[in-house]
Amino acid sequence: MMDPNTEQDVEENFYNIDDVVALDSHVSCSFESTTPQGILQILGINQNEAGKETKAEAPLWILPTIVSHCNFRLPKAFNEEIQGVLTSHASAANLEQLQADYYTVGMNLSKQVTEGKNLAKCLVSTFTQRIGNVIGPALQGKHRPARCDSLEKKLFDLAAKARKESQKWQTTTDSKKRKLLTPKN
């Protein structure tokens, strides 16, 4: 049994394997010479390699811990140019090619950067522009559209499953009605 004094509240998605995989994405960081050596060691940078400004790739999951000690730039898939394209015409974009876990990584990045509000708005705009083209084919029994990120693929699969369950329910219900309506002689 856990000691109540050491228990910690965690985010709802803490144990979600998809989020864990998405957080394995990396961002480019630059560290000043004043950065604590422990942070550089965690990232695998030897003290001898650290200079006036040290650049390294850091996993997204560690960003909340090191953000106060580094400068980082958004990965290309989330930069202002891509955000502009997605905001104006997201349906043509290949999110799978940009970042397989586009929405998950984007949501995590938006919490870490000063321009996070703009990134969050872009994510919402992208999602709302694309969702009809993801759910619609699933409900019509068509194939999943190409260029979907992992979240869109999950939504397609859930909508397709809902369609099948609904059809199953309708056929079961219809046959029960027919039996009830058939006159007994």
Sequence of secondary-structure elements: HEHEHEHHHHH
| Strand segment tally | 3
Annotation field: number of helices:
8
What percent of the residues sit in helical stretches (DSSP H or I)?
40-55%
Strand order, biggest sheet? 2-1-3
What about the largest sheet? 3 strands, antiparallel
Tell me, what's the shape? elongated
Contiguous low-pLDDT stretches (5 residues minimum) are: none
Class by SSE composition: mainly alpha
| Mean pLDDT over the full residue set | 84
Taking all Cα atoms into account, the compactness measure Rg is 24 Å
Report how far apart the termini are: 66 Å
Strand content: 5-15%
Offer a quick outline of the entry.
The protein has 185 residues and is mostly helical. The chain has helices at residues 17-22, 37-42, 63-66, 80-89, 95-98, 102-110, 116-139, 150-181, and strands spanning 26-32, 53-59, 70-73. The chain is built from 8 helices and 3 strands.
Can you describe this structure?
The protein is mainly α and 185 residues long. Helix content is 51%, strand content 10%. Strands 2-1-3 form a 3-stranded antiparallel sheet, with no helix packed on it. α6 packs antiparallel against α7. It is elongated and about 90 Å long.
Q: Would you spell out the secondary-structure blueprint of this structure?
A:
Elements: H1 17-22, E1 26-32, H2 37-42, E2 53-59, H3 63-66, E3 70-73, H4 80-89, H5 95-98, H6 102-110, H7 116-139, H8 150-181
Antiparallel strand pairs: 1-2, 1-3
Main location: nucleus
Family: Belongs to the GINS3/PSF3 family.
Protein name: DNA replication complex GINS protein PSF3
